[in-house]
Amino acid sequence: MSLSDEIMDDMKKAIKAHDKVKLNTVRMIKSALMNEKIKLGHKLSPDEELTVLNHEKKQREESIAEFTKASRKDLADETKKELTIVEGYMPKQLSKDELDKIVSETISEVGAKGKSDFGKVMKALMPKVKGRADGKEASALVRDHLS
């Protein structure tokens, strides 16, 4: 089942269940995917869909941080629910050990020797872990390995 089909199916279920949070979140995801499709002028590839989902996830994480900083627990809780829904459409996240292994392999492939090769390693690493690991976590591991 494609992501679009899955989203439409979940939207119907949310309508029937009167789940407003899920319905609104799924509609926002559908809208973001449609906007990207229009912007690019073609049907989205799975990689492009993942990029849109990553953007939606990042937006919600930033919102949660801002709401928490502003002592708006009600809005932070609502956004956490949305984040959980968005994460449900994303691929399974890599564990710390799995990410560490991929970082080590990538460093070997690239032949990185020190901190000056950080950019080369990240350029090779990110396509491998896109959507399955946080970029900040990946860059921290690369820095640790190159130190």
UniProtKB/TrEMBL annotation:
Gene3D superfamilies with a match to the protein in the record: 1.10.10.410, Uncharacterised protein YqeY/AIM41 PF09424, N-terminal domain
Q: Name one GO molecular function term.
A: carbon-nitrogen ligase activity, with glutamine as amido-N-donor
Signal sequence, renumbered to the chain: none
One Pfam annotation reads YqeY
This protein is called Uncharacterized protein
Its source organism is Lactobacillus acetotolerans
